[in-house]
Amino acid sequence: MLIARVIGTTVSTVKDEKISGQKLLVVRQTDERGTAVGKPYVAIDTVGVGVGELVLTCAGSSARQTSQTKDCPVDAVIMAVIDTLEVDGEITFSKS
Amino acid sequence: MLIARVIGTTVSTVKDEKISGQKLLVVRQTDERGTAVGKPYVAIDTVGVGVGELVLTCAGSSARQTSQTKDCPVDAVIMAVIDTLEVDGEITFSKS
Amino acid sequence: MLIARVIGTTVSTVKDEKISGQKLLVVRQTDERGTAVGKPYVAIDTVGVGVGELVLTCAGSSARQTSQTKDCPVDAVIMAVIDTLEVDGEITFSKS
Amino acid sequence: MLIARVIGTTVSTVKDEKISGQKLLVVRQTDERGTAVGKPYVAIDTVGVGVGELVLTCAGSSARQTSQTKDCPVDAVIMAVIDTLEVDGEITFSKS
Amino acid sequence: MLIARVIGTTVSTVKDEKISGQKLLVVRQTDERGTAVGKPYVAIDTVGVGVGELVLTCAGSSARQTSQTKDCPVDAVIMAVIDTLEVDGEITFSKS
C-alpha cells in the first residue's frame, strides 16, 4: 500500500455504470512524514475520508477486494485512514 | 486511476480478434491541471470520448471489468470523463 | 497498452514448457513518433510481426487473455500491429 | 519480490474490516547490501518481523496468496525474513 | 518479461510455508547486451539456473502460472534461460 494524502475531488458525469455514486478522490503519494512525492492519481474512497487526510491506497486487482468495489473497473482504493506513522523510533506523522 | 488527456488515435488492422472494433486512443497522464506528464500510452475507450478530453484510465486486470473489455487482452481503459478537478480548494480543471 | 517497436529476437532452449514454441521478441517502448524510450523488454508475439514494426503490447494478467497465452507464465504480449498514429491532428507514425 | 527493510509501523483505526487486526508495517526497498532506495510503502506482516529486519515483500494479487491475506484489499505483504544475501560471491548482508 | 542477470542467492529460514524449498535468486534487469540496469529484486527459479546466467523473469499474477509457483505468494519467477539475443541484426548476447 502507498501512503498518500487526499488533495482533492473529481466530478465525472459520464463514467462506467459500476462506479456510479462512488467518490473519486485525488491523492498524492507521500513519504513517512506526509510530504507529497510523485504525481497525483485518483482513488475510490471506501472508508469515508476528507481532503487533507493521510490514507493508505491499495492498487491493482486488490483494489477490487472491498465490498464496495467488487467487479468494478477501478485500480486504486483508499482502504485505511492513517492515525500515526512511527519510523526509526520517531512519530513522523500524527493525525490530530 | 490516472488522470490522462486523450491526445490521438491508433489505427490497427492486424490485432487480436477480441479487440476488433474497439477504439484505441492515445493518451498521456496529466497532473491535476491537465498538463501532460510522462509517456503516451494507448487505452480502450469505453465511455465515448473525443481527442482533447480529460479522462480517467484504469489499468491492469481492472481494465477488463467493463462489459466491453471482459476477457480481452487490454491493460488500460478509459472509464470516466472528467468534468472538474478541485485540488486544495481550487478548481484546477474544468471541462467547459 | 504501450506503443513499442520490435527490435530483436530471443533464443531460449531451457524454459517453462507452456511457452515452448512461442516467439519471444525484444521490444522497446516508443513515443507517438516511434522513437524508442526506456529499457528493452520481451513480449510474446501473438499476431505475427517482424523486427522493425511498431506494435501495441499488453502487460500483466491481461497478457494471458489471448488464446495463445492462456494460463502461460508470460506478462507481456504483442496483440496489435500499428498502422498509423495520429496525435494532435498530425500523422505522427505511418507503417508504409 | 523486493528486498526491503522494515522501518516503522502504522496505526489505523478506520480501515477496511478485512484488514482488522493485521499488522501494517512501513518498509523501504533496499539494494543487496540493505541500503534503502526509493520511497516508503506499507506491507502486511505475515511472518512476524520486527523493525530493522530485512525482508522480502510480494506485490499485487500475489500478496493475497497467504492464508492471512486471502481476499483482502492489500497489495503488499512481507512473506519472508532474509537471513543472508550473497551477491557475486560475497556475503552482502547477514542478519546477525 | 524482463531480461535479467542472476547475481546472487537469498537464504531465508522464516517464510511463508508455500515457498518452502523454493530457490530465491537475486537478479537485476539488464539491457539487450546483458548490462545491469536498475535495482536488484528476487525471483523464484523454476528452470534450474546458476549465478551469472541471463534469464527472463515474469512478474505479477503471471508468476503463479508455473506448476511450481501455483497459488504461491510470489510475484516474480525465472521462466526461461536466454541463449542468445539478437537486436538490430547483431548478436548482442550469447550464452557460451
Describe this structure in words.
Five copies of one chain form a homopentamer. The first copy, chain A, has 96 residues and is mostly beta strands. Chain A has one domain: EutN/Ccml (OB fold (Dihydrolipoamide Acetyltransferase, E2P)). In chain A, 0% of the residues lie in helices and 50% in strands. Chain A contains no helices and seven strands. In chain A, the strands form two sheets. The first copy, chain A, has a five-stranded mixed barrel. Chain A has a two-stranded antiparallel ribbon with strand order 6-7. Chain A is elongated and about 45 Å long. The two termini of chain A are 22 Å apart. The model of chain A has no long low-confidence stretch (mean pLDDT 97). At the C-E interface, strand 1 and strand 3 of C face strand 4, strand 5 and strand 6 of E.
Topology overview:
The structure is a homopentamer of 96-residue chains.
Chain A: E1 2-11, E2 24-30, E3 36-45, E4 54-59, E5 76-81, E6 84-87, E7 90-94
Parallel strand pairs in A: 3-5
Antiparallel strand pairs in A: 1-2, 1-4, 2-3, 4-5, 6-7
Describe the structure in brief.
Chain A is an all-beta fold and 96 residues long.
Total E-strand runs of chain A: 7
Query: How many domains make up the 3D coordinates of chain A?
Result: 1
Global morphology of chain A: elongated
Strand order of the largest sheet of chain A: 1-2-3-5-4
Superfamily (CATH H level) name of chain A: EutN/Ccml
Global Rg of chain A: 14 Å
Instruction: Give the overall pLDDT of chain A as a whole number.
Output: 97
For the record, give the distance between the C-alpha atoms at the N and C termini of chain A, rounded to a whole number: 22 Å
Order of helices and strands of chain A: EEEEEEE
Give the helix/strand class of chain A: mainly beta
Determine the most extensive contact between two protein chains: C-E, 30 and 34 residues
Oligomer: homopentamer
